[in-house]
Amino acid sequence: MAIDGEFRAGRHVVFLMHAHLVFVTKYQHPVFTDAHLTRMEEIMREVCGDFETDLEEFNGEANHVHLLVSFPPKVAVSKLVNSLKGVSSRLLRKEHEELRFAHWRDVRLWSGSYLAGSVGGAPISVVRQYIEQLARPAV
Question: Which residues pair with 135 in a beta bridge?
Answer without folding.
Answer: none
